[in-house]
Write a structure and sequence with these properties.
By secondary structure, the protein is an alpha+beta fold. The chain has helices spanning 56-69, 84-87, and strands spanning 2-5, 10-13, 23-26, 33-39, 46-51, 76-80, 97-101. The relative contact order is 0.16.
Length: 108
């Protein structure tokens, strides 16, 4: 599945004259990184892709890479949530990959 890593700023108190409590934004810079990954529990082999955004094109690029890394004769089953870019008809799922959709409102 994929994950997004990043940090957003929070509100903090700053030093000021006695009796005042001004607020300021702390650490306003942030960046997101999406990580798509698959792992075989039997062999420990993995495949992954890092991307600055996540959409159908990125998922297709991940599938292309995964298809190159899968040994011939191996079939992959992936449990997949129902995000729009996971359910679109524009996905190019390799023939040796089966996607199993998680039930609605399920949490991993």
């Amino acid at each position: 599945d994929e994950a997004r890593f990043g940090q957003q700023g929070t509100i903090t108190r700053v030093w000021a004259r006695t009796g005042s409590r001004p607020r300021a934004v702390r650490q306003t810079k942030y960046a997101c990184l999406y990580v798509l990954g698959a792992a075989c529990p039997a062999t420990g082999r993995t495949a992954g892709l890092l991307a600055p955004s996540l959409n159908t094109g990125v998922v297709n690029a991940f599938f292309e890479q995964l298809a190159r890394e899968i040994d011939p004769g191996v079939h992959v089953v992936m449990f997949w949530d129902r995000a729009a870019y996971h359910t679109t008809g524009k996905l190019h799922v390799p023939s040796n990959v089966t996607l199993v959709a998680l039930p609605p409102r399920s949490r991993s």
